[in-house]
Amino acid sequence: METIEIQITGRETIGSSNSRRLRKAGQLPAVVYQPGGESVSVTLDRHSFIMSARGKPHTQIFMFKGESDLNGKLSLVKDVQIEPIKGQVMHVEFIAVAHDHNVVVSVPVTVTGVPNSVKEGTATLNQTAYDISIECFPTAIPEGFTVDASKLAPGDSIHASDIPLPENISLKSPSGLTIVTAMVDRKSKVAEVEEETAAVAATPAAEPAAKK
Question: Which pTM was predicted?
Answer without folding.
Answer: 0.76
